Each structure stands twice: as structure tokens, then as C-alpha cells.
UniProtKB/TrEMBL annotation:
InterPro entries named among the record's database cross-references: Nucleoside_phosphorylase_d (IPR000845), Nucleoside_phosphorylase_sf (IPR035994), Purine_phosphorylase (IPR011268)
UniProt name for this protein: purine-nucleoside phosphorylase
Catalytic activity: 2'-deoxyguanosine + phosphate = 2-deoxy-alpha-D-ribose 1-phosphate + guanine; 2'-deoxyinosine + phosphate = 2-deoxy-alpha-D-ribose 1-phosphate + hypoxanthine; inosine + phosphate = alpha-D-ribose 1-phosphate + hypoxanthine; guanosine + phosphate = alpha-D-ribose 1-phosphate + guanine
Phylogenetic lineage: Eukaryota, Metazoa, Spiralia, Lophotrochozoa, Platyhelminthes
Family the UniProt entry places it in: Belongs to the PNP/MTAP phosphorylase family.
Organism this protein belongs to: Schistosoma japonicum (Blood fluke)
Length: 231
């Protein structure tokens, strides 16, 4: 991994300029495909696929996690222009905050205004069953308590303010839309709203840690970077 990568406006713009050589799509929705959901891109129409390794300044995937192939896919899905990450970068693989931030800032400059993130997580709430869906309504960022945050350091004003307000980070309208769709398609009993706990990993939680998270009001726990919401 190239730890010298800096997710600043100049480097991100260089990556975006390269991507635009291959497509004129201006996506309004970004999708991060979590473990096992990389095949979602097969439903994207008129797609352009660009390997991460071809994009200037873009972090290179280690391919150490199953289901994270390492492609940026642009096209149309459900009547919307989208860009999808077929594989993402995890803190526990050794990626820096700058590397984790880089693809999301690329999406932002491409035109993305709505970000859909998926991942596999462990259920803490005892009402959850294997295979259920949780629509995240809030989170607890445990690494963030120790200043492990992608926004630490000089602020990049082109991407947002120094101090970011997160009271509606998980958009209420989109959460309700997800619940309405599940009800309309008869799988509402599999869908829940909940609070997500971010544990950097790669170890799983001890029973004592899981009990603590449950008492704190968490419903699920995992290693997906809620850092993305800060960008």
C-alpha cells in the first residue's frame, strides 16, 4: 500500500479526470458493496468498469478479504446514474485513513450526493436472526474516541467544514424508504432499524465486549468504516 497517498483536492481531482476519460456518466448515487455483495454490479447497465489499480493515486486492494474484487463500476441502476465500489478498504488491513478516505472523495467530485453502504455485521440485539437486515439509524465509533478519524489533520475545505454535524448522517427519508420497500415486497419481518458499533478489528468481540455493547444500546457490531460518513 502507498502510505504517501494524500486525499487532497489535487490528487482526488487527478483520479476523477482519469475516470472521466472512460465515461461521461455523472453519478448521483454511490454504492459501496460489502462482503458477498460484489455481484450487485452485474445489474448495473451500460457499465464502465475501471480497476482500482489503473486509477491515479487510488489505493490498491490487497484482495485479502473475500468478495472485495477491486473495481470501480459506473452505469445505470434502477433509473439512476451510479458509481459502485466493488470492494473496499479496511483499517485492519493496514490502510491509512487517507487511503480509506480517497475513494469517497473521488465519488464526491464525480457528483455523488447519496451514499449507500452495505456490510456484513454481527448481531448483538437478541431479536436479530442470521440473515436479517439492519437499517442503521446511528452509530458508536469506538476508534474515533482515540482520535482515529479520517478528518484528523489539516482540513480539506473543498470537501467540507472543519467540524462536521452528524445528527442526520443516516438520512431519515432514505431509512424510511428502505423500510417501506421491505414492507411492499413482503420481507419487512427481516428488516430492523438499529445502532451500529464500529470495532476496528480484525478480532471479533469477546463475550464481555458484546455484553457491554448491548448495554450501551448497540444492535450490531462490525468492522466497516463509518469513517465514510465523515467525508
Amino acid at each position: 500500500m502507498n502510505t504517501a497517498i494524500i486525499a487532497n483536492y489535487k490528487n482526488v481531482s487527478t483520479a476523477v479526470d482519469y475516470i472521466r476519460k472512460f465515461t461521461n456518466i455523472s453519478p448521483d448515487i454511490g454504492i459501496i458493496c460489502g462482503s458477498g455483495l460484489g455481484k450487485l454490479v452485474e445489474d448495473i447497465e451500460e457499465q464502465t468498469t475501471i480497476p482500482y489499480g489503473d486509477i491515479p493515486n487510488f489505493p490498491r486492494t490487497t484482495a485479502s478479504v473475500a468478495g472485495h474484487i477491486g473495481n470501480l463500476v459506473l452505469g445505470s441502476l434502477g433509473g439512476h446514474k451510479v458509481v459502485a465500489m466493488q470492494g473496499r478498504f479496511h483499517m485492519y488491513e493496514g490502510y491509512t485513513n487517507e487511503e480509506i478516505a480517497f475513494p469517497i472523495r473521488v465519488m464526491k467530485l464525480l457528483g455523488v450526493r447519496v451514499l449507500l453502504i452495505t456490510n456484513l455485521a454481527g448481531g448483538i440485539n437478541r431479536k436479530l436472526k442470521s440473515g436479517d437486515f439492519v437499517v442503521i439509524k446511528g452509530h458508536i465509533n469506538f476508534p474515533g474516541f482515540g482520535l482515529n478519524n479520517v478528518l484528523v489533520g489539516p482540513n480539506q475545505d473543498e470537501f467540507g467544514p472543519r467540524f462536521l454535524e452528524l445528527s442526520n448522517a443516516y438520512n431519515r427519508h432514505l431509512r424510511q424508504l428502505a423500510l417501506d420497500i421491505s414492507r411492499k415486497n413482503n420481507f419487512y419481518d427481516l428488516v430492523h432499524e438499529g445502532v451500529y458499533a464500529f470495532n476496528g478489528g480484525p478480532t471479533y468481540e469477546t463475550p464481555d465486549e458484546s455484553n457491554m455493547l448491548l448495554k450501551l444500546g448497540c444492535d450490531a457490531v462490525g468492522k466497516f468504516e463509518i469513517y465514510f460518513l465523515n467525508l
